[in-house]
Amino acid sequence: MALTRRRFLTNTTAAGVATFATLQFGAPGAYAQTEEGTISIALAARAPSGINPQQSGLTGGDNWAIYQVFNGLVQSRPGTFAVTPDDFQPALAESWDVSEDARTWTYHLRQGVQFHHGYGEMTSRDVMFTYGRQIDPDVISAGKVLFNNIESIDAPDDYTFVVTLVRPDPLFNASTAVTLAASILSQDAFEEKGEDFNFDPVGTGPYFVESTDESSILLTAFPDYWDEPAATEHVRVSFIADTTARTLAFASGQVDMIEGVRQPGWIPTMRQRDPDTIFDATAPGSFNTLHLNLEYEPLDDIRVRKAFRYAIDSAQIASAFGELSTPMVGIIAPQFAGSVTREELPEELQYEYSPEKAMELLAEAGYPDGITIPAYTSQREDYSTIMLIIQEQLRASNINLDLDIIDHATMHAENNLAKNSVALNSSSFPPVPTLPFLQRLAAPADAKPDGSGQGNYSHYGVAIPGIDDLLDQAQDEPDFDKRIEVIEEIERKVLEDLPLLGIITLSYVIARNPRIDLGFDVESGYAYWPLNQARIVS
Amino acid sequence: MTSLDQPVEAVRPTRTLLENVTATFIGRPSMIFAAVVILTFIAIALFAPLLAPYDPLAQSYLVINAYPSAEHWLGTDQFGRDVLSRLIYGSRNSMIFGITAPIIAALVGTTLGVVAGYFGGIFDRLVTRMIDLLLAFPDLLLAIIISAALGGGFWNILAVLSIAFVPGFARVARASTLAVKQEPYVEASVAVGLRTPLIILRHVVPNIAAPVVVLMTLWVASAIRLEAALSFLGLGTRPPYPSWGNIIRDGLNNIFGSPWPIIGAGFAITLVVLSFNMIGDAVRDLLDPEIGQ
């Protein structure tokens, strides 16, 4: 039978409809058996970019693998953020002392810790090597900014490591030692392997890297782990960027856990398909903040920025995401110390949602007919969803956001070239109150057109005087409570100038097959957690 | 002996054009179906504000991912927007781009092709090389390259779609012109001293119109498909304004929450593209003398 164009179209239509019907109305996937003795997790990234904690350009998926393969000096209780200095637990350091002025930190290392693949015992030499790379300005490594405050490091013996800080930091464990960038590398392995270390890393963690391919990393339990060996023999970290494909892989039981889709209605839909699915979510998760570019007309006018603030209803955006989200008032998540609440703010800084007030302010600024501002954001579902809601809210106040939705990596690259006028940013921060300001609003972090700058897309502290003096004051303050007072003052100053608007917090969420027991409950923390206690229970 | 002053009895075809049209369209029920579909969608596009039950951009978080109901005939999407209203407004983009782009491309492409074919020489060689260069890229790829350079927005999409189709028209027009140029009636016109523009307009263009018109009707469907593909890729119609392509794109991430945007837009694209293809085929049957007779 000859295939005419008409017949081809008819046939393909029929095939499409049939596929769709199966997809949509088929029975909820019974959990199929996956690889024996393997727990698999699929993350929203295209491919592994490396398993070296100091490599730049790592994705959330890489971080999951890195966290299983490496250890830091200290750790927080699984599934939580360590908030106060007492919350930290020993890891490669058995104990630590801090001087009165919070400037000298001495770590006493655990003895007998073995590196993977027979690279010998971990000693202060490896710790010196790891931190040494991060404070050496000539070495290119990720997370360097976290080590800025270190004046010097020293190893008086094989099992002692001493850090001296420029400024006091009562939270050094939280701001630096516990971060992924401070994971201890094997010096011998690193020097021997060179570039190959990125995909064939050697750490001290509960798992070592068995193999990698274009779409996954296979980890195997390390029998000589210093703590209790991992409960399950293998962990497979898979990379499935497409949300539909990832959801299908989970629904069909091919993977045990997937990174959730952070868009309205996703969790209810998943619950409808299978009420037994478990959702592990961090609170607060990521801080979603909106940069207003102070060098971009008309955003240089405070009345226009105030109009933005009045026109955006954070509570409504948060309600769209349901249980995953809370509205933000300032720049620090309401769950963390240093944040301000609307009630304690003076009335002019409360910015109760009001399109009328927004339009009044625009008219005052000389835009009675409203304004049009070009901007772009990422196509990642959390970014695009939040920006599309903001766009619709702004429309009610005659602010037309001419929005381009582009590739995620491209958005970051363009933002770093200081090209965006209204840039949404989603970042996870630990409970270290100075961090969001240092990364997003400090003058030294100013984004530059040549790409040499960092995350201050607002040009705060450069285009107009910012909060740099107050930040210095906060960083010089050894007392935690007094430090928090300064931070609250910074919050109020930012609310006066509005270079950056707090929108919502959004939990990082992993959907989990009930056949997997993690061994702990996820409450807060970074967007990855340990899998060494995870076991298959049915 | 007949005088030149007296009109020559023309050789008439066995059927008139009107008879042909009637035979092609009325004789086939599928043609009636296609015509009805297209006219309906054009009407929907024209009267969108009257037909759409809701503002296609209005979000409502009380009715996220709703199933079809009396209030929302095709349910709502992940922003609580009414899917039917978005589809109705989305048809405007598809129809405008689908019909305008091939017309613009036909005008530009035919002009280039006829001039190149008729005059030959360096201009012909330039145009031919350019056509070859552009034809080396599939139309979707070409459209992606151009729109990546120009960016989204109404006029840019129109330009992108038109440019993507120009080389096809230019090639057909040039080839037909080369054939027509050899005909005795053109030689005769030159011999009696008719001015060149007049020869082109009166004798060349009407005789190459058939393939160009056929191409144009067939490419309406392609233009609709291409606009949808560009919007799907995020290079076409900008959010929040709906087009069938970006409705599918928005719906894809939310396929388990609400499949109705994809089903609706997919169905609309299929129906319209199928209908335009049917009409295109019929117009070809009608105008192509070898098949028509």
Automatic annotation (TrEMBL), chain A:
It is found in: Periplasm. Residues 88-438 form the Solute-binding protein family domain. Gene3D superfamilies: Dipeptide-binding Protein, Domain 3, Periplasmic binding protein-like II. Keywords: Signal. InterPro entries: Peptide/Ni-bd, SBP_5, SBP_5_dom, TAT_signal. The keyword Signal applies. One of its GO terms (biological process) is peptide transport. The keyword Signal applies. One of its GO terms (molecular function) is peptide transmembrane transporter activity. One of its GO terms (cellular component) is ATP-binding cassette (ABC) transporter complex. It comes from the Bacteria. Transmembrane segments: none annotated. PROSITE patterns: TAT. Residues 1-32 form the signal peptide. Belongs to the bacterial solute-binding protein 5 family. This is ABC transporter substrate-binding protein.
Automatic annotation (TrEMBL), chain B:
It is a multi-pass membrane protein. It is found in: Cell membrane. Keywords: Cell membrane, Membrane, Transmembrane, Transmembrane helix, Transport. InterPro entries: BP-dependent_transpt_permease, MetI-like, MetI-like_sf, OppC_N. It comes from Devosia pacifica. Belongs to the binding-protein-dependent transport system permease family. Residues 91-280 form the ABC transmembrane type-1 domain. PANTHER family: OLIGOPEPTIDE TRANSPORT SYSTEM PERMEASE PROTEIN APPC, PEPTIDE ABC TRANSPORTER PERMEASE PROTEIN. This is Diguanylate cyclase.
